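in:
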C-alpha cells in the first residue's frame, strides 16, 4: 500500500472512529486510488488526500416544528459542503431517523466523485435531518421543511450550493423548501434547488433520472458482452423513486423487475413489475407515507416475505436500490448461490467493503453506485443549466443527454482501467476517473 494513502487512512480511522460509514467509504475510495497516487508524487507535497477527506465547510442546525396536535419537536439539520473544486456544491438532502454526521459525511464524500463522473460542473455536498417523515401529514411536512429552510437559506444559492432530494425528500418537500427560500430571499432564484416541479423550473426526467440512468449504464455494460435487457429478470430492493424508474425502463427494454423490498420485508412478483398499473402503484405506496411494501403483495396477490431481503430469489441481474450496507457477506452468498453475473449497485454504498471485494472476485460484472446512480445528480445539473438560461428543454433532449452521460461514465471508467492496467474493474475505474478531475482542479486552484 502506498505510504501516503496508508497515513491518510490511519488518520481518518482514528479521527472518525465514531463515524464507521464515513471510514468505510474513505477506505473503499482511497485504496483503489493507489495507482494514480503512485503516479503523482506531487499530491503528497500539497497533502491533496489529507484535504479531500475534510469537508470544506459543515453546518449543523436546530430545526423546530409543530405537529398537528400542537406539540413542538426538535430535530437536527445538516449541510456538509465537501468539495467545491469543480462547481457549486451539489447533492441531496436525506430525511431519515438514521441520519447523523457519519451518514452525511459518507454521502458527501461519495458525491464528490459521482458528480465529477457526470462531466458537469458540480462540486460535492450532502445534507439532511434525523426527522422521520413516516406517517406525517402534509401540513407537518410543510412546517418541517419551512423551518429547515429558514435555518439553511443563507448558506446556499444557485452559484453556492444546490441541494436536492434523497431518501425521504421528493418533489413535495423540494416544493415546500423552494417556497420558503423564495419568501425569505424575495428573489426568483429557482436554481437553488433541483428536483423541482415542472411548473416552477423542474427538468423533464429528473424524477426518472436515477433509475433510468442506472438502466442505461447497465445496458451499456451488457452491450459490451453482446447482451441486452430483453427477457432478463432483475432483482431490485427498495420501492422508492429509484426502484420505480428502474421498473419502468427495464419493462420498456423487454426485461422485468421481479423483486421489491421495504423495511417490512420483500415481495417476489414472477410476472414482473411491468404493467403501468403496477409501476404507478409504487408512487402511491410511497406517497401514502406508510413505508410498507407488503401493500404491493396484497394488491397484486404475489408472495411477500416478512423481515427478509430479496437476494435469495432467482434473478439475472441484482440491483440493490434501497439503503447503505444492505449487502453483507450473507447476502453476497445468496447472490452467488443464484449464479447472478451482474451485480449493479444503485443505492449509495449498498455493499459492505468486505462483501464488495468478495463479489468482485466471484461475479462477472460489479458496478459501483457512484457511477451507476450518477444520472440523478447529472440531470439535476441539467436542471441547473435550464434554470440559469430560463428555458425548459423538451423530454427527448434531456433523455438523450442522460443516455450519453451514462455511456460516457462507463467509457471513462474503462479508460482509467486501461491507463493504469487494472483489467476490467468498473469500481476502481470509476474512483480513479472521478478523482482525477477533482485532483487536477484542486492542484490548479492552489492549497487551502
Ligand atoms: N441524492 C441524489 C444522489 O445521491 C441526487 C443529488 C442531486 O440531485 O443533487 O446523487
Amino acid at each position: 500500500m502506498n505510504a501516503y494513502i496508508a497515513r491518510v487512512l490511519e488518520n481518518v480511522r482514528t479521527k472518525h472512529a465514531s463515524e464507521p460509514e464515513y471510514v468505510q467509504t474513505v477506505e473503499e475510495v482511497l485504496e483503489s486510488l493507489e495507482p494514480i497516487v503512485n503516479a503523482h508524487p506531487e499530491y503528497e507535497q500539497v497533502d491533496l488526500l489529507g484535504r479531500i477527506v475534510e469537508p470544506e465547510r459543515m453546518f449543523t442546525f436546530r430545526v423546530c416544528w409543530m405537529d398537528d396536535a400542537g406539540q413542538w419537536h426538535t430535530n437536527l439539520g445538516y449541510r456538509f459542503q465537501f468539495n467545491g473544486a469543480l462547481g457549486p456544491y451539489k447533492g441531496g438532502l436525506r430525511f431519515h431517523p438514521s441520519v447523523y454526521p457519519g451518514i452525511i459525511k459518507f454521502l458527501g464524500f461519495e458525491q464528490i466523485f459521482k458528480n465529477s463522473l457526470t462531466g458537469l460542473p458540480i462540486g460535492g455536498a450532502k445534507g439532511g435531518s434525523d426527522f422521520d417523515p413516516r406517517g406525517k401529514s402534509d401540513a407537518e411536512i410543510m412546517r418541517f421543511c419551512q423551518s429547515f429552510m429558514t435555518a439553511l437559506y443563507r448558506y446556499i444559492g444557485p452559484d453556492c450550493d444546490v441541494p436536492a432530494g434523497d431518501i425521504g425528500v421528493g418533489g413535495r418537500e423540494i416544493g415546500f423548501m423552494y417556497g420558503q427560500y423564495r419568501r425569505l430571499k424575495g428573489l426568483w432564484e429557482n436554481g437553488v434547488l433541483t428536483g423541482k416541479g415542472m411548473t416552477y423550473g423542474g427538468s423533464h426526467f429528473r424524477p426518472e433520472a436515477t433509475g433510468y440512468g442506472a438502466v442505461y449504464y447497465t445496458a451499456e455494460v451488457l452491450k459490451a458482452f453482446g447482451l441486452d435487457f430483453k427477457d432478463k429478470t432483475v432483482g431490485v430492493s427498495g420501492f422508492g423513486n429509484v426502484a420505480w424508474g428502474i421498473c419502468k425502463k427495464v419493462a420498456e427494454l423487454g426485461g422485468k423487475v421481479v423483486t421489491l423490498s421495504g423495511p417490512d420485508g420483500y415481495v417476489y412478483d414472477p410476472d414482473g413489475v411491468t404493467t403501468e398499473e403496477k409501476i404507478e402503484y409504487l408512487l402511491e405506496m410511497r406517497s401514502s407515507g406508510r413505508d410498507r411494501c407488503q401493500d404491493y403483495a396484497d394488491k397484486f396477490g404475489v408472495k411477500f416475505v416478512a423481515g427478509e431481503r430479496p437476494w435469495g430469489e432467482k434473478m439475472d441481474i441484482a440491483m440493490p436500490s434501497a439503503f447503505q450496507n444492505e449487502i453483507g457477506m450473507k447476502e453476497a452468498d445468496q447472490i452467488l448461490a443464484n449464479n447472478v453475473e451482474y451485480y449493479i449497485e444503485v443505492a449509495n454504498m449498498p455493499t459492505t467493503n468486505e462483501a464488495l471485494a468478495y463479489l468482485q472476485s466471484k461475479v462477472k460484472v460489479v458496478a459501483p453506485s457512484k457511477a451507476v446512480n450518477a444520472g440523478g445528480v447529472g440531470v439535476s445539473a441539467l436542471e441547473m443549466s435550464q434554470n440559469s438560461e430560463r428555458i425548459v428543454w423538451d423530454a427527448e433532449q434531456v433523455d438523450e443527454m442522460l443516455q450519453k452521460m451514462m455511456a460516457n461514465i462507463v467509457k471513462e471508467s474503462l479508460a482509467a482501467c486501461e491507463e493504469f492496467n487494472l483489467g476490467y474493474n468498473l469500481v476502481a475505474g470509476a474512483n480513479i476517473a472521478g478523482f482525477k478531475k477533482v485532483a487536477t482542479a484542486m492542484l490548479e486552484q492552489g492549497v487551502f
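note: The chain has a mean pLDDT of 98.
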